[in-house]
Amino acid sequence: MSVRQALVFGLLLCGAGLLGLKRPEGLADLVAIRHWSYPDYTRVVLELERPVRTRVRHLPADAAAGRPERLYLDLPGVWVGRRYARAIPVRDGLLQGIRLGQHTLRDSRLVIDLQRYAHHRLFALSAPDRIVVDVYGSRHNRATASGRPFPPLVVHPVHTVVVDPGHGGRDPGAIGISGLREEEVTLELARELRRRLEDRGFRVLMTRDGDETVSLEERTARAEGAGADVFVSLHANASRRRGAWGIETYILDASHERHALQVAARESGVRPDQLDALQRAMAELRVGELSHYSSELARQVQAEVVTGVRKVFGSARDLGVKPGPFHVLFLSGAPSILVEVGFLTNRQEARRLRSRFYRAVVAERIARALSRYRSHRALQLAGGAP
Fold it and tell me: Residue 21: what pLDDT?
């Protein structure tokens, strides 16, 4: 019997007496399972019909039974039946494969067979309900002092910037005056920013470079896989009040204003009340640790953009730096900001956002701020700055 056959056989043994039984009423379905692979990082996403509370457990390799090192988590109240009788092969250097089975009559089990492993993290998202498991390889091999399977943030030179043009594809984002679409504004702005950052010696990756649909979990998987030092998400604002205008920058934080909650819900594609699951999961992450660096970056970007727009266009309303529970920032493991570069629903700002000249001014100012942030990080590493 091959190792793979032994793995599948072992899974079937767990529920050998269950697979022929009728499905109990009231169980939820597993809608989909997705994964993205990079050299030192793999993300696994389970989409479910409803929220599920779970935790990841780690098991060492069992050579006698032909089992590799593995992670597993139970999914209470979820039915998979015989849908996943065969393992899902991955073989990306970190994950050998993913197995799903009906562990008990009312619970399913996910098993991740590992090839290489340093640590992992787990969190939940809503609308739709998803469980996300991130597995990291040896490049991130330090555990926290508390013993949690996620390493502390390490200050290192800033070289790789991931630029995230908000929305795209099936998700146009906000629609403004004269049909101006957020997805188009953010993509053109991202391209301008990429050019200016590359001119300054940064390595730049974009989460999308066309009119494509990219889920929030895939955007940040691309950033994690690229080893992002900074994550910058670009958006354009909207309001029912046509008089609303201004520029604002957001960071991830557990506390937030009502306005921040509304903006976060719109940019995440959910209702404000659906961000509750995010708030619960935040306590498990390094929000406070990341917040210091994200705040520093956000302040510099906000100040540069407002100053630059005022200098060239004569006016700009400074809405400041604000905390908010944005899914796209929550999923990133690097210092991250989300910049709202103006209101599509305000006549003056919509005219500006449609202009390539305005986008060039904003892009230039964001690039300047990132250069200053990089210099400050370099001084910190050299011991010359707090």
Answer: 64
Q: List Cα–Cα distances, 301 to 216, 341, 359, 363, 370, in angstroms.
A: 23, 11, 14, 10, 7
CA-CA-CA-CA torsion sign (248, 254, 255, 256) = positive
Give the model's pLDDT for residue 274. 62
For residue range 49-58, what is the model confidence (pLDDT) as tens digits?
999 999 999 9
**Residue 139, Cβ density class (10 Å: 0-12 exposed, 13-18 middle, ≥19 buried):** exposed
Query: In the chain, count of helices (H) and strands (E)?
Result: 9, 16
pLDDT for res 124: 82
How far are the Cα atoms of 84, 112, 233, 264, 303 from residue 284, in angstroms, in the given order?
Answer: 30, 21, 23, 20, 31
For tokens 């590992």, name the residue. 114
The phi, psi pair for 226, rounded to 5°, reads: -85, -5
3-class secondary-structure state, position 64? coil
- What letter would DSSP give residue 99? E
Point out the residues of the chain with pLDDT beneath 70.
Answer: 1-21, 138-155, 254-261, 264-265, 267-289, 384-386
Structure tokens at 345: 């629903």
C-alpha closest to that of 249 among 261, 265, 266, 232: 232
The answer to whether the beta carbons of residues 373 and 297 sit under 8 Å apart is yes
336-343 and 318-324: which strand pairing? unpaired
Angle 221-72-153 from CA coordinates, rounded to 5°: 40
Distance, first Cα to last Cα, the chain:
59
Distance between CA atoms of residues 105 and 22, nearest Å: 9
From CA 353, how far away is CA 25, in angstroms rounded? 52
Question: In whole angstroms, what is the distance from residue 367 CA to residue 321 CA?
Answer: 18
Find, among 350, 326, 354, 346, the residue nearest to 338 by Cα: 326
Look at residue 279 in the predicted model and tell me its pLDDT: 47
Domains in the chain, please, with CATH?
3-140 (2.60.40.3500), 160-381 (3.40.630.40)
- Say what the pTM is: 0.82
Helix axes 356-381, 287-313, angle to 10 degrees: 140
- Please calculate the CA angle 178-181-184 and round it to the nearest 5 degrees: 130
